[in-house]
Amino acid sequence: MLSTTPPSDRDEAARAVLRRNDRGGFTVPNGRVYPFQWNWDSAFVALGFATFDLDRAWRELETLFEGQWDDGMVPHIVFRAPADGYYPGPEAWGIQRQPLTSGISQPPVAATAARVLHGLSGGDSSRIRALVPKLFASHRWWHETRDPDGTGLVTIVHPWESGRDNSPDWDEPLANVIPQVDVAHLRKDLGHVDAAHRPTHDFYNRVMTLVEEAKALDWEGGAVARKLSFRVCDLGIQSILLRADRDLLTLAEELGFTEEAGALRGWIARGERAMPRLKGPDGLYRSLDLRSGRLSEAVTCAAYLPLYARTALQEDALALKHHLEATRAAAGFSVASSDPRDRRFDATRYWRGPVWLMMNRMIADGLAAYGLTDEANLLRRDSGDLVRQNGFWEYFDPSDGTGCGGPDFSWTAAMWLSWAGSEGNGQALTTL
User: What residues form DSSP beta bridges with 171?
Assistant: First the structure.
């Protein structure tokens, strides 16, 4: 049902979500379902804070990098305080370091967010100068540890690293992971969220088997990248990293990080040369199973991200324009996380169909860069309407806009403040 909340109150409601989920320098995605600090959540949350508290926005990124490993990896979770209502917690990962963290990463959005914050900082470069070496170490980890043969295609070793946890992209490669554990009884998410919205027990058994494989390798980066049963070049990570490389290069050049800038240029060139390997015969991009050498059968919301990365051709943009038209006609709201015409589509189950506002923002940024401004504006309107109708849910059913997952979700509130909210406060960050 359409909300009757006045627009000005909706902006304040979004700020209130971020304040409620603020744990003193870092933000939890949602207090009940996700009680820790998540990697790419924090990058998007920083953009929301930047519309009303720039210092707090910087702090979000700075606390995230307090969990960075010595090899440069930024973990996907930083476990800052005990929380019994979440599985898998730090004991399941078995990592002996402080602060406690998970053993895998997530899409590297941080450099892009940092460039936005720097642009709002009025010439004060002190905080970005302190952050650039940490951002560079993170990118080096992706390009070297996770691309050990220098192919230009980076590897993920766990579906959760993609951020699109149970996307149809992973059905084929995950089918080759033989479950060695049964963790159904350990799950806590089903006590907070409708089971129809969440991944299956079989999925959890397979992905926790991957954690056990990595633990057996003592989480050594090179061995993990080469030996785990799941090794995929995720189109999402590949594209988001390339875009973040470009943003970090801009910062490095401006601030005089000459050596880092040279390395970034090389990584960008190598990644661009490799991108055609991810294009299917229909002209649409997909993820690549590095074990089998096969592209995913599924075309998901990640297909649009080469536009965000600025690596696609204009003809690719036109193909994606037509794909967007067809999928929106089939779904209702855009962008459905998986093609509504696909047999694997599920309108409410996590990454198998629902709309996610931070994905819409990246996709709209890419569409606009290729001159598809009407389509970019359409995504912004769809995103705003979803919030206006239902509030700040984790994700939304594309068929009718119903909110799914967790309520009062930080990155949804942040996307409203920084992009989707038409009323805004005059400081909305309309582009990335």
Answer: none
63-122 per-position pLDDT tens digit: 999 999 999 999 999 998 877 778 898 999 999 899 999 999 999 999 999 999 999 999
Q: Is the pLDDT of residue 427 over 50?
A: no
| DSSP β-bridge partners for residue 295 | 288
Domain span at 132: 7-420
In a domain, 209, yes or no: yes
Residue 289 bridge partners (DSSP): 232, 294
Any alpha helices (H) in 120-176, and if so which ranges?
A: 126-140, 171-175
Asked whether residue 430 is assigned to any structural domain, the reply reads: no
* pLDDT tens-place string over residues 255-269: 999 999 999 999 999
Does 427 fall in a domain?
no
Using CA atoms, how far residue 179 sits from 174, 208, 291, 331, in Å, is 10, 8, 18, 34
In a domain, 155, yes or no: yes
Q: Which residue in the block uniquely carries the two structure tokens 């965000």?
A: 308
Q: At what angle do helices 39-49 and 110-119 cross, to 10 degrees?
A: 20
List the catalytic residues.
165, 394
Q: In whole angstroms, what is the distance from residue 235 CA to residue 269 CA?
A: 17
DSSP for 283-343 reads S-B--EETTTTEEPS--BGGGGHHHHHT-S-HHHHHHHHHHHHHHHHHHSSS-BSB-TTST
Q: What pTM did the predictor assign?
A: 0.95
Please report the pLDDT score of residue 195 as a whole number. Answer: 74
CATH number assigned to the domain comprising residue 51? 1.50.10.10
**Domain tally for the chain?**
1
List beta partners, residue 37: 78
